[in-house]
């Protein structure tokens, strides 16, 4: 089995888990609550997972908080989502720093409200030395946009050789590829999340709504992941991620 072959990573000793935190609205609606109550409960769930993840072998956690397409939601909901993100960053930064969690935001920054961006910059600065967990929060994120942006940098990276290698470098140099991608909320789609980085990710879909996803559910997802056989296109015993060969040479 090749579960430890986390492709071409900086992170030799842990997994990159990505989560599409879906189902907040339906969780709230089922309780007769406004959608924002679901988002608030979603933030509480995120805190629990961030606490638990490093204890169970996760060294990079990338979570989908707001997609470029989420701007299509009613203005009041968008506003509350950004309010909650700002509050999360402001209230949690010190605790995250103490727990050696490094926070990075991925996604566009030009449309994020200024007050949120200030908090983002402060949190990234304050937690920069964190080594136990890299928490990447995708805000105003679109994988297709990220790929297009990386492609626009290719001419500057001519020394990297082919276009695929250059894109691979640009898109995975910070956090490596995704090992396990979890989506809560019952839908079975990627909704424009980490399309490149998840090329060989194991996919795990659960009907559990995000506010109800806790340490036990993460453990269950990881247990299933550990039973999967990753082959990266090869035969079982020779499974090496192709991207590792393409960019960094076989390891
Ligand atoms: C995920 O929950 C949070 C965001 C997309 C910001 P949803 O708000 O999509 O919840 P559902 O899918 O409507 O239940
Ligand atoms: C994906 O969920 C985005 C986040 C979880 C932030 P959506 O609820 O926006 O996705 P669709 O619309 O069901 O595909
Ligand atoms: Mg949804």
Quick synopsis:
With 251 residues, the chain is an alpha/beta fold.
Taking the sheet with the most strands, its summary is:
6 strands, parallel
Helix content: 40-55%
Number of strands: 6
Please give the domain count: 1
Q: Give the overall average pLDDT.
A: 91
Query: What is the CATH level 1 assignment?
Result: Alpha Beta
The coarse overall form would be globular
CA gyration radius, whole angstroms: 18 Å
Please describe the structure with a list of short key phrases separated by commas or semicolons.
six-stranded parallel beta sheet, binds 3-methylbut-3-enyl trihydrogen diphosphate, single chain, disordered N terminus, alpha/beta, 251 residues, Undecaprenyl pyrophosphate synthetase, globular, binds magnesium ion
